[in-house]
Amino acid sequence: MKKKALVLIISATMFNGLWAQKHYEPTWDSLDSRPVAQWFDNAKFGIFIHWGPYSVPAWSPKGTYSEWYQYWLQSKTLFGNGDFKGDEVVNYHNKTYGKDFTYYQFGNMFTADLFEPDDWAALIKESGAKYVVLTSKHHDGFALWPSKEADDRGFPWNSMEVGAHRDLVGDLSKAVKANGLKMGLYYSLYEWYHPWWQNDRQRFVAEHFLPQVKDLVTRYKPDILWADGEWEMEADQWKSKEFLAWLFNDSPVKNSVVINDRWGKGVRNEHGGYYTTEYESEAPGFNRPWEECRGMGFSFGYNRNEDIEDYNSPKALVLMLVNIVSTGGNLLLDIGPDARGKIPVIMQERLLQMGKWLETNGEAIYGTSPWRGSFQWSEGERNFKPEQHYLGGDFILKQTVNPESGYAVKELFFTQNKNDYFAIAPNWPGKNLTIKDFKPDLGSKVTLLATGGNVSWKQSGPDMILEMPEFNPNTMIPEDKYAYVFKISGSR
């Protein structure tokens, strides 16, 4: 073995050993000192899966979250994109199922009888995603694994005893890991209508939340623990810091697990592991790895009320990914299977379309970091964003290929790895492409990843000018036209 390689191996082993040996105290200073695993920062693209009894009615008004069906039903309120009376879900439910039909009866209808975890995992792998995050338990409290704590409300409320009669978390975890992907588990800290949550929150934390989440971690050894539903109480009330100290010091995944930042009221973007945003655009300036999560439409859970125009186009999804990665983040893109375990065809199609683009252009995405301020803007007012509760995916089209009058567009996105620079154009540049204020080394080589062909370039004052080859659309598959990647080698 070469001496240099041996030194690197010894150094890596020492680093991992020091990380493993460190004892974390239940304080944010100590917990925040734990680094986020490098694989997460390199992955860039993951798939979120919202699946549960809410997948049975699979309905809410456009612009709202269908996975909040129970809350909309019992609280008689709505919020999201649009003007709502608040009784829309109640009226739909009473008309469709009857006034006496409770949300808990959907549990028996959540059969998952067409669920094929190997097929899900293979599809996700083909999408180019590197990790999965499954809702092990959403705010309705239904557990997708045989959790005894899920039954402490007085009746069975988990997938082993109700509906599917199957360990859905275990089955999907096994399939995802067998396909070489990382497996994450979403877990809601609170539950809307658990009697202890409503009447005795200390008991809920001590006898429900903490033993249940520890059981989840111990059974399935997730690569990511994705907390949510934290906003009703402070971290101290949740005992989050004590739990995270256990997770980092004593759990089966103490040396490997990655966590997010949703561990108590006011904690997001301040403490925990990586930072999270939701239906936003980009977040330059974070001092930790971060992740944007959103659905393909306006809902995380499957919403049969959404039409084709409510789903983002594949070009919009690719440009969203590029936009986020160019500012140092990951995209966690959601799919919502139906109650029988089928992923809607349009969602399958979007995943495959993104996978085709990444198959050609993934070099500019995976394992990269921001470069040159992330974007190159045209003249005009920047950062067009519609006023929406949830920022729709069409904002990226308005910022690139379909601008509003007077607004600038992002002409280029920039990423880099340890060897090369990448300039990503949302439109075919025409005869020339100008990278402003950039002087590469004279021997630098430019390649169009879609074709593998070389691109001539010249220096014009402070700018690098790429001279486009004559565009022949027959040389590119349709997916390559979502965004054009130019690789600049030899300037590192």
- Derived from helix and strand composition plus strand pairing, the structural class reads alpha/beta
Question: How many separate structural domains?
Answer: 2
Work out the number of β strands.
17
In whole angstroms, how far apart are the ends? 28 Å
Determine the number of helices (DSSP H or I, runs of at least 4 residues). 15
Secondary-structure arrangement, i.e. CATH architecture of the largest domain: Alpha-Beta Barrel
* Uncertain spans: 1-19
Form type: globular
**Beta-strand share of residues:** 15-25%
Numbering strands along the chain, what is their spatial order in the largest sheet? 5-4-3-2-1-8-7-6
Helical amount: 25-40%
CATH third-level topology of the largest domain: TIM Barrel
CATH level-four homologous superfamily name of the largest domain: Glycosidases
Question: Roughly how many Å is the radius of gyration?
Answer: 24 Å
Q: What can be said about the biggest beta sheet?
A: 8 strands, parallel
Family: Belongs to the glycosyl hydrolase 29 family.
GO molecular function, one term: alpha-L-fucosidase activity
Function: Alpha-L-fucosidase is responsible for hydrolyzing the alpha-1,6-linked fucose joined to the reducing-end N-acetylglucosamine of the carbohydrate moieties of glycoproteins.
Protein name: alpha-L-fucosidase
